[in-house]
Structure prediction request, 560 residues.
Amino acid sequence: MIEFSHVSKTYPGSNDPVVNDLSFEVPEGEICVLVGPSGCGKTTSMRMVNRLIEITEGEILIDGEPNTSMSGTQLRRKIGYAIQQIGLFPHRTIADNIGTVPNLLGWDKNRIKGRVDELLDLVGLAPDDYRDRYPAELSGGQQQRVGVARALAADPPIMLMDEPFGAVDPITRDRLQDEFLNIQDDIRKTIVFVTHDIDEAIKMGNKIAILKQGGVLAQYDTPENILARPNSEFVSSFVGGDRVLKRLSLTRVGEMDLEPANGGTDDLLRISGGLSVKDALSELIGSGHSRAVVEGEGENGLLTFAAIENLMGGASGQVTNDGETSA
Amino acid sequence: MSNPALLLLQDVLEEPKLIDWEWLRENFWEDIVPAFQGHIFLSFISVAVALLIALPIGILSARYRKVYPPVTFVTGILYSIPSLALFAILISIPAVGLGPTPVIIALVAYSLLILIRNTVAGLDSVPPETIDAARGMGLTNRQILFRVELPLALPIIVAGVRIATVTIIGIATIGAYISGGGLGALIFDGINRQFPTMIIAGAVLATAMAIIADLLLLGLERYLRPWARARKA
Prediction:
């Protein structure tokens, strides 16, 4: 667990903090996304966790211990670190790059070699093909996979990821995000993830911390709650005018509570249960009918506009200014 | 006509026998080989000493940017002093005197600018994100310098060593004027004795040495950059 406790950062010679009294908790095994416009202090906040930037006031606790209880380098060897520009060592092979932290920790050669192959497999790169190559021989997407593998190398319980999928095209990014979420299902790391992209935040985060200019926490909540109940005009406009549609993208139609489809549905559009409600709605509108059949594992369900409205629970977009996020 | 060079020119024009092969054969072991060895010694020692001085100063200049302008100013002045004048100044210092010492000092002084500049350029060429990633993974400053920055800067540093070496091999010939030895001794003797064979032997060998040293260092530069040889997938 990572706990930010009244964390502030002010650079010498400046009166304006770049991070201002930040307090929140990242529960064990969850991804917390820090998101906000540029200059909101999200990267600074992340870099204070492994003390690449030192805190001015407050403290960051890792499993209850202040992160100042050991030296910066010792701390950083226990925390995975992946950044947008990747920063692979161009003069080292892929295997050497991934083995960096295990090597610093003094693992023996065979153990490192085994771990490198395991990680290459995990991120979908055939070890025999990639182990001995240099970073310049890899595509951007492959390099980002290696960057993630390198961050995971010593199996750190905590990871910091600063736009780790930022340097690739949207299709590759989408695939890398999916793959990483699959990996995360197994490895259950506690992750601080920085992005400027609200869609990525909604997709990757168990929790989202929205920061605004001056490093002030605007809202900290689950993606569902942030979309359903933004606590201020700032959050509402940051998540975008299509936040209702974004909420629909969080659920698959197969997970909806639908009426069974009985008879008389032969001429209706059939939709796969794996589709997001947002995509299903788009298909439904496109079909020209007001109903469609969702093909589930058991019996088929009937998707209607009413069912979608029902899913939204009527709370379709009032900004609550009291900051409360209770259901 | 008192200038030996003009006398020589006159001789050559009268009797154009440029290379006396017999003399070369007879004096090969006695004169030519020692001169060649002496030249290698002068050049190698100078480059080595210059590197020992330039590397730390270069690293400091890259780290503490304020140091860099005064460093380039001083080494730039050293670089621009005419070599004969520098030799004259050095031999007038009692503790230095004649011989190889002032020559080595002068050659070191000439290489500093190139070597320091290339060290700084090499360290500057290391991508900042590579250093950030290294720090973020828990490398200490010393580990970042020796495992990341210097290996990545090395090809550019070696490129500087190439330029410095070729320059030094050339200038070292003038060192014979103050009894520094080396191939310059052959050339000066040849001029004084109006004997073109010695001049040509000295000049050809010095040139050959410079070219070979350049190629060897080019090979080293390539060898130090295996990651650049690897083709894009």
In short: The mean pLDDT of chain B is 89.
